[in-house]
Amino acid sequence: MTRTDTPLPRVNADFLVRPRLLDMLDEWSPISLILAPSGAGKAVLAVQWSVHARAAGHDVIWLDGEVDDPADVVAALVRYAGVPAGVDDAATLRRLRRDLQARERRLALVVNNAEPIVSAIGDELVEIVRDCREVHLVLCLRRRLDPVAKALLETETRVVGLGDLQFTVEEVRALAQQFDLDLPEDEADAIRASVGGWAALVRTGLESLPDLEQQRVTAWSPRHVAWFVGANIEPALPPTALAALVRTALVEQPTYGAVLAATGPLDDVARAALEDIGILDPLVSEGEPLVRLPPVLRDFFGSRYDERVLGPAAAVHQQVARYWLGERDPQRALHQAVSGRCWALAVEVVEDHWWEIADADLREVPASEVRGHPSAEIGRQAALPDDATPLSPAARLAETELRSAAMDELVDRAGDPEVLALLTLLLVRDRRRGEHESALDLANRVEAVLGSPGVADGSPPVRRAALEAGRARLMSGEFGAASRVLLIADEAAEERVLSAAASGDRDATRQWLHRHDPVGVAGRIALAFDALHVLDRPRTRDALDRLWAGGVVNDDLWPFVAWLEAEHALLWSGRSRLRAELAALREAALRRPETPWLQGLLDAAEVDLCISLGRTAVADRLLAEADPGSVPALLARARLERVAGKPDQALEVLDAVAAAGMPTTALEIEALVLRAWCLDGSAAGAEDALARALYAARRDRMVLPFAHVPTSLLERHRRAVSGLGQVMVLLREAGVRAPYDLVDELPAISPRELAVLEALARGLSLEQVGRELFVSRNTVKTQVASLYRKLQVRDRTEAVRKASRIGLLD
């Protein structure tokens, strides 16, 4: 019987023992494959596990396909079983199947570099381990072979692959500690990423260096890894494999298709060599392999590119970029073209595929390279709205002609696809720059071209143009016009349902949501609108949370979300917190200029929060700075006047808004409910306004506006107005609270009185206030008395407290 305790191959004691891998092999599957390329740590793991298995009392036979042939494997098993050999290896292996079945001790046959042995007698070895319960086969392979594929199908097989053998961050740190090198987690992660976790390269990078005191110290050095690759891997590569690998290093996103675009067809020698070192990972016997090229290897082989031997590197970049265009991935094509400084190709990608690459950083394409290409120049400005690079004369002329042309002239030119494309790019650019009047003018021009009989409906340029024109209308509060043009874009366009939801058309909103699943920002905002209109608190909160988590603050439509969030806070909770967050968001430098409509929504949201918090002075100040033509801001002004006890002034504002025309059903209902509150002293007037509001609300089953007035108002007119009782039930079930309380009339504080108030809040005496403001003590006394009268307080403490509450003092 052969001894199974013969010495195993030696490995350096400083190789890291990884218990997680030993545990995988300890599960003793009939066949265990350690399947990975050279340098992945297969042999080290096999030796470490063999030592571990012997220490646990099991038998281990170690063989290596580089020095042992199939006959040596058969002889080793014959000696272990203690039986005579047969007439040939095949007969001997058949006998061994019977003799090894009776063994009670576990035997592990571990074969390193197992390819030649498996190719010769792999089927017979599979048969033995399948029939002999205590015999286990552990194979170290660089690539999967047919007998191994058969074993995977017929026998329980455990595979330890490259993904398992790659070092984790914790293992990189543990290995470094064995060399007295204490690595922080981020440095260990950088090391792991730079070599793709390959065990041999991680360890190779641990370089011993002398420090200033001539003591040996350890550091991790990418330079040392590069030296190792140059000394050990590069010389072993056949010429065709080396040429392919150097070209592969130029590929920005190396997939197998992109690699072949760079290298051309791989011969069998090159493919086998690249599989052996792990650049190509076939994973299965057939099919497209994965490409694994860690940054250190990519940098090393990329530096070996010799144009005298391999031709211009730009040609490789162009071949790969053209491949990505063929795969309909212009983003990757642009990235590859930029990497190779293939500017003509990069400009071509920008011109032909702007809409697919609009989110790419076009700063990578220098403005000088797109100069003279109008669509590329304007597309670059649209993608980079903060870029001040002026247009070339050619691009400026093209823009001027499109902006100054009469509408009928544009319609006559509608058959030219460049007209619609440039108009749409200009619209996007101006909208992103905050030039909203210009954007709306361009939207008019786009819609004129879209209405021409020479435009083919349903084509991608037409849908894009309609979508951008509709978005411009939507952001300007022109919801009816937005819906009409968005219908050309696509019946499923999410901006279309947002237009319906924001205007209060819940029937259209629900129909769209029933047919489509919202995945974009516009659809999710529409979902939140629909939930809020019927006071569905959980659904509203969930929709808003998803929007914030998805980064909506970077989208043009974010003011809609801010307004919805304010409504949620007014009805349920979080008013003070949201007011502070909203103010911070509006002051953030990253904010683009908003359209007047969206700015009005933001103004109304912050003002309503201030009114609800009793900070009426702040609300008044904000409204003084708001657009006087904004309907949401005007309704907020009317609400402030009513809360401050001035219903007549509130009615004047509401009359002016009604005369100008309400842009949406939702705002119309809001204005009618607010009018009822202002007319509360006149039962007939209040009941008429409530009845009209209910009539409009019933059509869309909208409850939200009725939550903005005191419950007492609704209770007083419940019997006289049909349907009001049902609304009150819905308000109670939703758990909302009336967000606005009546306050004293807003005090008309002069600037000088405000300065005195601020000085009093700082604790200054009358004499100190006079000296600070350069007035006499008696003047200060007069102003203080006026302050107390206007604030309806008796002393300094009450004055400061009330001024702080209503927002006169921040």
TrEMBL record:
The keyword Iron does not apply. It comes from the Bacteria. SUPFAM superfamilies: C-terminal effector domain of the bipartite response regulators. Keywords: DNA-binding, Transcription, Transcription regulation. GO terms for biological process: regulation of DNA-templated transcription. InterPro entries: Sig_transdc_resp-reg_C-effctor (IPR016032), Tscrpt_reg_LuxR_C (IPR000792), WH-like_DNA-bd_sf (IPR036388). GO terms for molecular function: DNA binding. Pfam families: GerE (PF00196). PANTHER family: DNA-BINDING TRANSCRIPTIONAL ACTIVATOR DEVR_DOSR, HTH LUXR-TYPE DOMAIN-CONTAINING PROTEIN. This is LuxR family maltose regulon positive regulatory protein.
